Amino acid sequence: MVLYGSTSVPRNAKTVMDLIAANLLPPEAQPPDSLHHDPSSIYSKWLNNLPGQVKERILPHLTNCDLSEQLSEVMVGPGVAIVAISNIISVFSGSTFWAIITFVLLVTLGLSTVIGIIQGIITPLQNTFSSLREHSGLLTVGVCVPMFLSSLLFVRPSGSYYVNLLDDYWTSLPLFFVVILETVAMAWIYGARRFLADLSIMLGRPISPVYRWLWCFLSPFVLLVLFLSALIHLFVKKITYLAWDSKSSDEVTRTYPSWAKVLLIALIILTILPVPAYFFYTFTEVTSASITHRRATVILKPEAKEGLPKAHLRLQVKQSLKKVNKMDK
């Protein structure tokens, strides 16, 4: 069964009626009056039952009403499902109510995603810098306002091209980089064997040890190959986008300007930079704390003063590493 668009069928019927009124088509080409009741089935029956000569004269004036072909031409990805649901809802009884419910569903879905992203930014900042916990409201505003201001770039007439640039070329490289680091940290730093034991305790059943080899060798190798292929694709091939050409009334492939690649590289570096920056920050903190712990050891020992029976505590700071090592032994 062919699914026809709910808007193109009435438009074609009106076109045929105008041609009949202008004596360009014979009266037998008149569409049935019940066409608006069930456009998908009645339109196909009317079009197929037309005489051959009349059908040949009508077809050049009609637009393509096959919804599946329209979707395959103009849309790809998850957006197709939303468009298909909208067209299906439009033929329901009480379509206005279902349209409102669908709109509320999309709004809540978007809000839940945004809340999760914001919380994923705020929580690590508060865990790293404990002073920010006292000003959670100001921190939330300080994160949301710059994100809102930067998002205004995408509502401009050229905003869709920036969205395509980020969606097609920007997201893959930082994502692969972060996932590679997570895999290496889990498999080689925390330990795949230890992680496998934790999963066995959580699930209450033993897990095949083959997962440990997959985490240690196969997963990092595959992720590294994907990361390198995306990196090579970025630097070797030209970054392109689809633009609407008003002269030919069709989409054409065009190349982004050179500054777009510079902007893309800067965004990739800016996204990856917090990972090594936080690593060096933590490494510096741990190193300085370890040095301080070795050079300054606090010893509490009782001491009698001027024959008094009560002992007082005296704080002694030992600077010699040799004495500290003797005490540890």
SSE layout and pairing:
Layout: H1 8-21, H2 39-48, H3 52-58, H4 67-74, H5 79-89, H6 95-128, H7 136-151, H8 159-170, H9 172-203, H10 210-236, E1 240-245, E2 250-255, H11 258-272, H12 274-295, E3 297-304, E4 311-318, H13 321-328
Helix pairs in contact: 6-7, 8-11, 9-10, 9-11
Describe the structure.
With 329 residues, the chain is mainly alpha-helical. It is built from 13 helices and four strands. The strands form two sheets. It has a two-stranded antiparallel sheet. Strands 3-4 form a two-stranded antiparallel sheet. It is elongated. It starts with 7 loop residues before the first helix and ends with a helix. The model is unreliable at 1-6 and 307-329 (pLDDT under 50).
- Terminal CA distance: 85 Å
Q: Main sheet, how many strands, which sense, barrel? A: 2 strands, antiparallel
Helix/strand/pairing category: mainly alpha
Low-pLDDT windows of residues: 1-6, 307-329
Residues in helix, %: 55-70%
Helix-strand string: HHHHHHHHHHEEHHEEH
Question: Which radius of gyration do the C-alpha atoms yield?
Answer: 34 Å
pLDDT averaged over residues: 77
* Number of helical stretches of at least 4 residues: 13
- Report the strand count: 4
> Which term fits the overall shape?
elongated
Widest sheet, order of strands: 1-2
Q: How much of the sequence is in beta strands?
A: 5-15%
In short:
By secondary structure, the chain is mainly alpha-helical. Helices cover 66% and strands 9% of the residues.
Keywords:
single chain, 329 residues, mainly alpha, two-stranded antiparallel ribbon, disordered N terminus
